[in-house]
Structure of G-protein coupled receptors family 1 profile domain-containing protein:
Amino acid sequence: VKTMLTPGRSLAVIVSIFLAMFAVFSPVFFGSPLGWKFSPTRNRTIIMQLGVDNQAEQITYGLSNVCGYAAFFVVILCTGILITSLKRKAKWREGVTGIASAGKDGEAPAGGKTNANNVSRDTKIIKLVVIISSVFIGSYFPSTVVFLAATAMPDFSPTGEYRNLFFVACSFTYNLEAINSSVNILIYLNMSSKYKSTFDAMFCKGDNSPGIGAKQ
C-alpha cells in the first residue's frame, strides 16, 4: 500500500477529485449570473443571483447524483474486495496456526501465537473498514436522495415552490456530512491501537495521564 499510495500520487488524486467536483457544480453557477438587485429582507441593493438556469441546475443535480452513487459503488466494491482478501488471509493463518499447534509433544511453536495475533488484527481491520464505510454511506446517502428528488422535481430547488423544504433537507444532510467528518477520528482512536499511540505521541507529549481510550 505504501508503494502505491505515495504522497505525490495521493496529492494528484485529491487535486483531481477537487477539479472533477468543481466541474460538476460549475454549470449551476455559470448559468446564474450575479448582479445588483434590491433585497426586501435587507432593505438595500446587494449583489446576488439574478436568476437560475433551470437546465443548468438539473444538469448539476444529475451529475451530482452520478458522482454520489459512483462513490458508493466504489466504496462498497473496494470494501468487499478488502474484506474478502483479509478473510482469506485470516483463514489461511488459522490453518497455519492449527497445524503449528499440533507440534511435537503437543507444544505449539512460537510462530503459532504470532499467527493468532495476526488473525485477531485482521478481524479488527475488517470491523474498522466496515464501520468507516457504513458511516460514510449512511452520512452521504441522504444527500444523494435530496439531489435525486431535486432532479425529478424542478420545484424542489432553492428557487422552486418547495424551496423551504429543500433548505430544511439540505440542512439535515449537511449536518450528516459534518458528523461523518467528525466521528472518524473517534472511530480510529477506539479501534486502531497504532493510530491511538501515534495520536498520543503527537498531542499528549509530557502528559503523565493515560492516553485516550487507555484502560484504567
Observations:
- The first strand starts at residue 34 and ends at 39.
- The helical segments are 7-30, 54-101, 110-152, 163-191, 193-203.
- Residues 211-216 have pLDDT under 50 and may be disordered.
- DSSP finds five helices and two strands in the chain.
